[in-house]
């Protein structure tokens, strides 16, 4: 049986600061069931962290309702907090504490007994490969180790649901890949529902089963990465001909853009469309001498939805803007 893990209806947050009104989150509906791994994707300032803060009870919504891990965020915030883990954007406190002590402190924060905390900490140190650093101080860890510690801290009390805000931001590609392996393994081994934000398109594409795209405070797409790409973008096919005349003749039959001897077309189900194009054009006496087929990326999807490329925005923005303080 599947249980509803997150249900949100009309979740809205409006900030008023210095005489200005910012509609950070505008009437967001969410449905996440037990065991899902969902990526909340969007450019910097889209409202991802604000949504997470409302769901984790750190920030009261201006409007709307949500039930998280079976508890109402307004009526039972303590119940929500007991049942969830939350790793905020770029934290990792207790700088001079040792890794193991940090985990023990977190366990007692959640009211866990000494023995239970020690066993659980040892288990997490093992599964997140923190063995080498367990007796080191937090400040001496690498970026990737710190983020793994953050995740261990978020999991110490065995929450049913884990929120991770930009877990991989600021890490080098190798550490990012390693972190994701751990996230995917944890999910597989424990069945924990994971709701995370990222602005890395390739991560969301490869690793999440479900992608929710947020832009300007609203959810503008919600599906599997595959379905989003299939329905919104279409595959890119390039066909190369002997000469520009053939290319022009081909384009007049199948459409697309001509660039010298090459015609580029966008087609749904490109893997099937490609042999059909080659056959039909061949029948018309137009020989395809080379062809490529590229599947769309989530950036193509974002572009199709918004007219903007997330790749251009995400790259520099997300690391530069300081995290707003919770109110
Ligand atoms: N405490 C706050 N006070 C005023 N504006 C805020 C506050 N927190 C966030 N915002 C604004 O709300 C919008 C969404 O921010 P945020 O949720 O952090 O986006 P994301 O996590 O997607 O980058 C941004 O315009 C941001 O500047
Ligand atoms: Mg954020």
Protein described:
- The chain has helices at residues 48-55, 77-83, 99-109, 114-127, 143-155, 173-190, 201-207, 225-232, 244-254, 270-283, 298-306, 310-320; strands at residues 4-17, 20-33, 37-41, 63-68, 71-72, 84-87, 161-165, 193-198, 210-215, 218-223, 235-241, 257-259, 262-267, 288-294.
- It is an alpha/beta fold and 327 residues long.
- It has two domains: 4-229 and 310-320, Rossmann fold (3-Layer(aba) Sandwich), CATH 3.40.50.300; 234-295, Alpha-Beta Plaits (2-Layer Sandwich).
- Strands 6-7-8-3-9-10 form a six-stranded mixed sheet, with helices on both faces. It has a four-stranded antiparallel sheet with strand order 2-1-4-5, covered by helices on one side.
- A hairpin with a 2-residue loop joins β1 and β2 (20-33).
- α3 packs across α4 and α5 packs parallel to α6.
- The longest helix is centred in the middle third of the chain and has 18 residues, at 173-190.
- The two termini are 38 Å apart.
Structural key phrases:
single chain, 327 residues, alpha/beta, Rossmann fold, Alpha-Beta Plaits, 2 domains, six-stranded mixed β-sheet, four-stranded antiparallel β-sheet, 12 helices, 40% helix, elongated, binds adenosine-5'-diphosphate, binds magnesium ion
At the first level of CATH, the class of the largest domain is Alpha Beta
String of helices and strands: EEEHEEHEHHHEHEHEEHEHEEHEHH
- Give the tally of structural domains: 2
Approximate strand percentage? 25-35%
- Named CATH architecture of the largest domain: 3-Layer(aba) Sandwich
Shape: elongated
**Physical arrangement of strands within the biggest beta sheet:** 6-7-8-3-9-10
Strand pairing plus helix content: what structural class?
Answer: alpha/beta
Mean pLDDT: 88
Uncertain runs are 314-327
By CATH, the superfamily of the largest domain comes out as: P-loop containing nucleotide triphosphate hydrolases
- Main beta sheet, described? 6 strands, mixed
User: What is the number of helical segments per DSSP (H or I, 4+ residues)?
Assistant: 12
Q: Looking at CATH, which topology of the largest domain would you report?
A: Rossmann fold
Ligands bound here?
A: adenosine-5'-diphosphate, magnesium ion
Helix content: 40-55%
Distance between the termini: 38 Å
Per DSSP E runs of 2 or more residues, the count of β-strands stands at 14
Gyration radius, to the nearest Å? 24 Å
């Amino acid at each position: 049986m599947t249980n509803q893990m997150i249900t949100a209806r009309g979740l809205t947050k409006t900030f008023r600061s210095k005489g200005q009104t910012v509609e950070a989150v505008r009437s967001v509906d969410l449905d996440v069931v037990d065991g899902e791994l969902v990526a909340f994707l969007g450019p910097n300032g889209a409202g991802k962290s604000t949504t997470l803060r409302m769901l984790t009870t750190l920030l009261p919504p201006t409007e709307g309702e949500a039930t998280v891990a079976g508890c109402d965020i307004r009526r039972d915030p303590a119940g929500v907090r007991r049942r969830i883990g939350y790793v905020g954007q770029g934290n990792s406190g207790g700088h001079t504490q040792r890794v193991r002590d940090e985990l023990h402190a977190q366990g007692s924060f959640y009211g866990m007994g000494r023995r239970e905390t020690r066993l659980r900490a040892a288990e997490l140190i093992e599964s997140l490969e923190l063995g080498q650093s367990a007796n080191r101080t937090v400040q001496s860890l690498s970026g990737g180790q710190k983020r793994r510690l953050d995740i261990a801290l978020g999991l110490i009390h065995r929450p049913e649901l884990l929120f991770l805000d930009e877990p991989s931001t600021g890490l080098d590609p190798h550490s990012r890949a390693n972190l994701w392996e751990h996230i995917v393994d944890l999910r597989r081994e424990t069945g924990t529902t994971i709701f995370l934000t990222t602005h890395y398109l390739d991560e969301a594409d490869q690793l999440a089963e479900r992608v929710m795209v947020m832009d300007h405070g609203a959810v503008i797409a919600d599906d599997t990465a595959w379905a989003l790409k299939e329905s919104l973008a279409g595959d890119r096919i390039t066909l190369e001909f002997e000469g520009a005349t053939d290319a022009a003749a081909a384009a007049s039959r199948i459409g697309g853009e001509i660039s010298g001897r090459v015609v580029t077309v966008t087609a749904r189900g490109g893997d099937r469309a490609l042999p059909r194009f080659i056959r039909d054009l061949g029948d018309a006496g137009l020989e395809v001498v080379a062809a490529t087929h590229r599947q769309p990326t989530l950036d193509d999807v974002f572009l199709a939805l918004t007219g903007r490329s997330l790749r251009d925005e995400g790259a520099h923005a997300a690391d530069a803007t300081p995290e707003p303080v919770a109110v």
